[in-house]
Amino acid sequence: MRGWAANLERKVAGIPSPRDAPQVHSAGLDSARILIVGGGAAVGWGVLSHTLGLPGSLARAVSARTGRGTDVDVIARSRMTVRSAHRHIDFDTLHRYDAIGLTLGIGDAGRLTSPRAWRHDLARLLERLRHSSAGGTEIYLAGIAALASLPMFQTPLGALAGSQARALNDASILFCAATDGITFVPLPSTVASASGRFRSASDYDVWADTLAARMAARPRRSRTPGIGPCWH
Question: Which CATH superfamily is domain 2-216 in?
Fold first, then answer.
């Protein structure tokens, strides 16, 4: 599996992905600040700008639901796992964010990380995030999107990774249901999942709208106790 995962990295190296600054802004007053951390959907495979990827789609979707501005920062690494995520995060800056979205799991599925190890490492990461972020900051764990219909996963080892992804999603559902401060958000199938091609801007729009619906439904933390703004 490690050899298959390494070969997969070489294959995706030729797929377009964003090269611009990892920040996106949607116009409006009193902007919400969101951080996205992870691999998979956060990387933006198939588009050339974060504006067309998940960050931009999420900023627009949240603003459309709230009528306010939205700033989205993204920390994306294709090889990021739940165990390695902390190495890429500047924990000293987390107090600035109203919400944190995690798009982890594809790297773990490819390495056949066990559900037990996944829950253990997720708990450690969540503890650090909650310790460093402001009170009331909500954390959202996006489910691992369907892998089976993507061409590079249509192999016996790819099918094994897809099966492991489903097992990790099941573990995430149970973990989030039993843990305060983190919400599991399953990502729906997209046009790419149905057609077998790679990702496009429309796929990120679908996932962003799903995440935005959860984020905008919760009160936003107050910046000044008792008088801070809300998501909507």
Answer: SGNH hydrolase (3.40.50.1110)
